[in-house]
Amino acid sequence: MNIKYLQVKNFRNIEKCQIEPCENVNVIFGQNAQGKTNLLESIWLFTGCRSFRGSKDSEMINFNSNKAVLDMDFFAFDRDYSAHLEIGEGRKFMLGGVKKTTSEVMGNFLSVVFSPVHLSLVKDGPYERRRFLDIAISQLKPKYGVTLSQYNKAIQQRNILLKDIVYHSELYDTLDIWEDRIAFYGAEIVRQRLGYINKLSSYSHEIYSGLSSGKEHLTIGYDQQTVIAGESKQELYDNLKNQLYQSRKNDLTTGFTSVGPHRDDLSIKIDSLMARNYGSQGQQRSAALALKLGEAAVVRSFSGEQPVALLDDVMSELDETRQNYILNHIKDWQVFITCCDPNNVRNLKSGKKFEMKNGKVK
What we know:
Layout (H helix, E strand, L loop, with lengths): L1 E10 L2 E6 L5 E5 L6 H9 L23 E9 L2 E10 L1 E6 L2 E3 L1 H4 L5 E4 L5 H4 L2 H15 L1 H23 L10 H37 L6 E6 L9 H14 L1 H7 L10 E6 L2 E2 H4 L2 H23 L4 E4 L8 H9 L6 E5 L12 E6 L2 E2 L1
Parallel strand pairs: 3-13, 3-14, 8-12, 12-13
Antiparallel strand pairs: 1-2, 1-4, 4-5, 5-6, 6-7, 9-10, 10-11, 14-15
Helix pairs in contact: 4-5, 5-6, 6-7, 6-10
């Protein structure tokens, strides 16, 4: 999968620009606030997802216009595509000249993005890592998102009951209903997460080894707050339901559900030490990058297509060895890298460079 042509109009500070990237590494350099990240964001939107910066659509439109217009030609799944996106009062997609809904667009153009906000995967608490897992799995298996939604609703209902039972003891027996649902959907969530992490771990380990020239080792694992064992979905269901029953007394005291995949975490270790607590800035950035590039590798294994990689400000806090790996050893896929200092890419052996200034590509 690769982008052949991109045109951006009235998107943030970009009034109009166009590029024809190469099939491997494309570097976009320039000073801060010139539009480098904006250009990557415009590419990302063709996935059908929301902005990776958490922005509202209205915030992405240039002040001098009432809509942003994006056009992209790309090659994927053995054919050429022409995509068009307008952002104004809602989003309007067209693929091959045919109007599409957001859900119909998803899965046609595949991309993985790394930006400084993704350092939260390593630095912050379990919520960000669970969110990373759940979004990654949902993009591959849309039904997983439905399962996750049903699970969260069941957790909310059980939590409400736990608080109400103190005043209405007759509600106690209804816990069985919600615990059955939590166990049913929770078992599937655990099964899917374990399967995904098994693939992600292998790819991320290999990528991190390359970044560190084999001097450091990254280990990814699933850290369960309460171990829910089992090889089959039925075993996971039985185990989780039993633990929910066993936790009732404690949960009635605290007023919330203490067991289940909503409490789990993604374990990230460098040389057997927790990256969050003991990793340097460069190691933490490398670990987050390895996770995101590992995510791309999982997408490729699942879909047969290598997603386009968007790496925003990835060179910061990385030594020359790690920078060189990113520039010259990520092969056979299209990569877009932003950086401020052009000296960071002086070792680029093949690819294209684009200078961004005042929202324009020079």
